[in-house]
# Entry
Amino acid sequence: MLNKPTQSPINVKKYLMENMFCAPRGMLGHVGERLMSLDQGLPTWVLDLLEINVSDSILEVGLGPRLGLELAAARAREGRVVGVDASETMLGVAGRRNHTQIEVGRVELRLGSADRLLFDDATFDKAMTLNSLHI
# Structure
C-alpha cells in the first residue's frame, strides 16, 4: 500500500510567476528582471499617458527592474521619483541602476507594498505601476 503524500504537489506555473514576477527573489527573480527589462515600450507609453512635467513628484509602486524609474527621473529632471517594491531583489537591481540619481536625491527607493504606503496625502503629482497586477 502506497502512502499518500502529506504535501500537495508544487504548481510549477504559480511557483515561477511568484518567484520571477510577483515577488521576484533569488536567481528566478533575476531572470524575471531580465525579461521585464526587454519591454521598454510599456514604461514609455505609461509615462506618455501621465504627461510628466519637469518638476513632478512621481511614485512608482512595484518598480520592477528600474525602467520606469529611469524614464520618470529623466522626464521629471527637477522633481523627485520614489519607487516602492516588496521585493528586495528588485530594489537591489533598481538601486544599482539608478545609483547616480539616488546619490543626488532625485530617486528614492523603499521596501514596501501598495497596501501600506507610508506617505502623506498629496505627496505625489503622479503615480504608476507597471507589470505589478498579476492574476
Summary: Strands lie at 57-61, 80-85, 107-111, 126-128.
